[in-house]
Amino acid sequence: MQHAVLASRFRAIRLRQFGVGPLTILLLALATPAEARRLALVIGNDSYQNVQPLRNARSDAKAIAAELKSVGFEVTLKLDLTQKMMKAALRDFKAGVAGGDEVVFYFSGHGVQFGGTNFLVPIDISAESEAQVADDAVPLQRILDDLTEQKARFSLAIIVACRSNPFKEAGRAIGGRGLVPVMPATGQMIMYSAGAGQAALDTLGSHDSNPNGVFTRVLIQEMRKPGVPAGSLLKDVQSDVVELARSVGHEQVPALYDQSLGKFYFRTGSPAVAATGAGPALPPAASVHVPTAAELDESYWQEMKNSTDAADFTGYVASFPKGMHVAEAQMMSRKLARAVASKSAPPPAVVPAASPSVGLTPGGPYPGWGTTSMIPGFKGTGEVYVNRDGTIETLAPNGDRSHATLNISDPNNVYGTSVTQLGAPGGVQRRYPDGSISQQVTIQGRMAHGVITGTYYDKFQNGQFQWTVSPGR
Predict the structure, then answer these.
(1) pLDDT value at position 107?
(2) Distance of CA 473 to the CA centre of its chain
(3) Separation of alpha carbons 57 and 162, rounded Å
(4) Which residues are registered as beta bridge partners of 421?
């Protein structure tokens, strides 16, 4: 900014030297682009009057608002908005957005769709018909269009809502399965906290004392990482939420739709600096900071969250019995303890369990296809091979390969992992957003008539697939 001011003064001196008048200088100064502002509107609706009330929306909104303020956003926080209040808040927010601004819109509450249109629901809506909902609720697309109209440089909409139908739960046949996918405009990024038809988890169990829903707590944790572009950061949110939800037997896959240009950061800085623990020197007059209980809790958790020793997680619970990560720690402690027990257990006297290769006959190539959340509407085809050991190889026309090991002992619950290696079409190596050329993928589905159909996810994407693994389809 200082360099810009000096440059502006230099230009003014040069203009005066060449006889340019004060009015011309003023017009040039007005034409100089101002530094982009960071604006956010955060809404949390819990107290619904005519459909199921929610429990985390307000606390989620408060936590996100505080986090956005800490990274320089001018935040407008609104809680439990009626129809009139919600529409007024959106009008006022739109009026404050100018060209070049960086904007975040966060909504936590009920949503519904019909006719392919998504609506965000105020707390006082009384839904007797779809026409009434269309009049009283707020179309998500209208909010996105408003940001485009105001020429925001970057806008991110985060919608924390179950993508099931709240009116169906209330005994009304209004709307469809819940929010449907949306196509962002150029410069926009949109994230839903759950996939189509899925419920967003408020808690990980009865012992989970965290006041925020699973998606929001993960989002806040990732937002605190410096130097990570929003696209990569939200992909990490997606994979972490999937893992936490599956740890309690629930399926929740956040959906990301990205048409942003360039890179947006919640926190600037170097990821390498954050990873090594080194940082900029404190100013000479800086005072000593005494960590709060919450900071000690978070610091302890960050140090040991990737541990493979169950005792570390038991120790966390003992040190922070009301900590923010008690539920996750208890889950990891049980998971690691089970893993140790299974390794130390004597082999069973009965015939060993079926290996993943049972039922698969070596052969190929067979047809296969897959979709990816990174390219909405895309459906890629390729070849599938079954190896002698029962593992599965896939090959795409662009050279992408995967090697999968699946357990098919229960045809209705096929699961496993694969490693995907990106190809180098035309001699140019393809890479994932983090620069890597391979990723581990988690797979789940079912098999019928020699065809495996299911879903997959990795750190950067999720999608559907279908592999033929038997010639007798």
Answers:
(1) 96
(2) 37
(3) 11
(4) 401, 438
Q: Which residues pair with 12 in a beta bridge?
A: none
Q: Which among 229, 192, 183 is positioned nearest to 375, based on CA atoms? A: 183
Report the C-alpha gap between 459 and 39 in whole angstroms: 29
What is this structure's pTM?
0.53
Interhelix angle 83-96/140-149, rounded to 10 degrees, is: 20
Alpha helices in 18-113 (DSSP H): 22-31, 57-70, 83-96
Question: How many residues are present in the chain?
Answer: 473
Give whole-number Cα distances, 395 to 248, 251, 388, 407, in Å: 34, 28, 17, 21
Cβ–Cβ under 8 Å, residues 423 and 396? yes
Q: Let me know: does 184 contact 258? Beta carbons within 8 Å.
A: yes
Q: Please report how many Cα atoms fall inside a 13 Å half-sphere around the Cα of residue 147, on the Cβ side.
A: 26
Q: Which of 139, 124, 231 is nearest to 188 (CA)?
A: 231
Q: Dihedral sign for Cα 121, 122, 127, 131, please.
A: negative
Residues whose CB is less than 8 angstroms from the CB of residue 41 and which lie 6 or more positions away in sequence, other chains included: 75, 76, 78, 89, 90, 93, 104, 105, 106
Integer Cα distance of 24 and 18 in angstroms: 12
93 close to 135: Cβ distance less than 8 angstroms = no
Tokens 């990873």 belong to 275
138-139 and 154-160 strand pairing? unpaired
Q: pLDDT (tens digit, 9 = 90+) per residue, 30-85?
A: 333 445 789 999 999 999 888 888 888 999 999 999 999 999 999 999 999 999 99
Position 300 pLDDT exceeds 70: no
* Residue 138 near residue 120, CB atoms below 8 Å: yes
Rounded distance between C-alpha atoms, residue 17 and residue 430, angstroms = 53
Q: At what angle do helices 326-344 and 230-247 cross, to 10 degrees?
A: 60
Cα(446)–Cα(406) distance, integer angstroms: 11
User: What's the rounded Cα separation, in Å, for the pair 416 and 408?
Assistant: 9
CB burial readout 181-212, b (16+ within 10 A) else e = bbebeebbbbbbbbbbebbbbbbbeeebebbb
Residue 140, token pair as written in the block: 């998500």
Q: What is the 3-state secondary structure (H, E, C) of 336-360?
A: HHHHHHHHHCCCCCCCCCCCCCCCC
Produce one character per residue of 339-349: b if its CB has 16 or more CB atoms within 10 Å, e if not: eeeeeeeeeee
Q: Which of 2, 11, 458 is nearest to 239 (CA)?
A: 458
CA atoms within 13 A on the CB side of 102: 18
